[in-house]
Structure formats: C-alpha cells, structure tokens
Write a structure and sequence with these properties.
elongated, 25-stranded mixed sheet, 1 helix, mainly beta
Length: 346
Amino acid sequence: MAVNRKKLFALAVFLCAGSVSNGLAQVTAPTPKPKATPVKPKVWSPPGFPSPPSFPRENQQTTEKFIAVDPNVNIRLCVSEGSLKINGWERDEVRVFVRSGRLPGFKVLETDKTSGKANWLMVTNKRAEGERPGPMPECLAGSLIELDVPVKSSLSLTGRSTEAVIDSVKKVTVKTVEGGITLRNIGSGISAETYQGNLMVEGSGGAIMLSTTSGNILAFGVNPGQVGDLFKAKAGSGNVTLQQVEHRQIEVNSISGTVNFSGKFLSGGLYSFKTSSGPIRLHAPLKSSFTIKAQYGFGSFHTDMPLRYLYENETDGGKSFQATAGAGDANINLTTSTGSIVIKKQ
C-alpha cells in the first residue's frame, strides 16, 4: 500500500511538470496593435458657404496688395476663416492686407468703359511663387484680413468663421456661418445673415434685412433711403433691440427672445412685432398717435399710456384687443404666444 502511494505521488508530480512545460511552450508574444490613423473631424458648412481652408502652414504669409478701381466698384469677397475689417476711404483703389494667411490677389470681372478701371472686382487668392499646381480656393483665410475700399463701393461677402466689421461703404450683402457682424455707416442698404453670431447695425440707411439663428440683433440710428424702404429683423433664440429706427415699415420676429423698440411711431407707418415665447416691450413718446392690434395667449398686457379701446376679446386661446392713442396715425400689430406686452412712455 505504501509503494502504491509513492508511485501515485511520483506520477502526479510528472503530470504537473508536463502541463507546466506545455503551457510555457505555448506562450507567445502579443501581436502589437496597429496605430490608429487620426481622423480629422469634418466641419459642416451649409450649401453655398465656403469650406474650411486646407493649405500647408508653410504657405502662410503676411502680404499687402493694391489695385486701382472705379469709385463705384462692386467688390466680391469670400473669407473662410479670420478676423475681417473693411473700411471705406476716399481713394479710388482697393487695398487688401492678410496676416498669416494665403497670398491674396485680384480678379477683374468687368472694367468701366470710360476709365478702363475695374468696376466689378473679386478679391481672391493668388498662387505663391514655387507653389505646386493644384486646386486654388477662392476664399481668403488668415489671422487678420483688412480691406480699404472706396466709400461708394458695394460689397458682397460670404464667410464661414469670421468676425466681420464693415464701415463707411455704400451697400453691403453678407452671409456667414458663424461669427458676429458689425455694420456702421452703410448708406444705401444692408442684407446680413449669420447662423451663429450677433448682428449690429449703426448709423446706416436704406432697406435693411437682418437675420440670425442663434444671436442678438441691435440696430441704432438707422433711416430709410427712400419712401417704402423696409426694415426687417428675424432672430431664432436671440433678442431684437431697435433704437431710433426711422423706417415707416418695420417687421420684427423672434422665436424665444425679447423684442425691444424705442422710438417714434411715424404717421402712416406699418409696424409688426412678433414673438413665440418672449416679451414685447415698446417705448414711445407720450403724445404718440397710433392704432394698436394685439394678440397674446398666456401672457399679459400693461401700458402707462392713455389708450381708447375699440374692442376686447378673451377666449380659451388667449386675449386680443384693438385700441388707439391720439389720432391713430400709425398701425401697430403685436403678437406673442406666451410672452407679455408692455407699452411705456419715453
């Protein structure tokens, strides 16, 4: 019996040693995992807007260019990235300055028959000396882009990511994806639109149309260029504030922001202020003359100006009324779903 136990013990030791040996023989070095190639996130740009710049960093430089133009030149410009400043001056030439960006250039689209100078000009990129051939983007890009242009010039600008400041030109049309737009001393009309950013207009005239999806709108000291010019402002989630806007036709619409108007209601004027869930606040001289039609759902109405009510109505969907102040010369329509309406004297 003792012999059998010794034999069994020796057999067990032999089997354990074999299994350990076999296990060690089967161990192999782990296969290294291939390095993942980094994927550059794709930046979305709406249709018709420029894409992000894609040029080698070694091609970036600081450059200044000039070109003689007709004083009434129409200028077309595209900026994919960078801070943009455009200023009107008394010279009949265009100056472009780009810091840390592509080499700028000019493309003359049309010349004046009398002067022979460009009256339709595109500011674009120029191939640098020694640069390999390939697709050339039209849109400028740099840390800072500056233009000096004739004061009578008209501008057409598209941009992707840019803070734009434009001062003292005749007319402006601008569309950007993101970034604020500031417009000063634009004499003969403005059309400005941005998806993400604030819009500010000061000391300007003509027909004005402003639109932002997520940003605020501020207009101060603007006037129509001629009878019938429309001022129109539309904001998605931002506030719209108008001060001293002298247009007789004003349309303002904000989905979830506050609408503020401070100024005169002119005789024969047509004013429309609408919000979905924000308040409407009007400040006007005590002796104003207007007819007001108001509709508000779950909000409230308050005024400290004397009104003569023509009718009042209340239903499950909200309240409405019509009233006059003075002779009722201007026409005002106010609509809000869940906001309040306040009319105060200046």
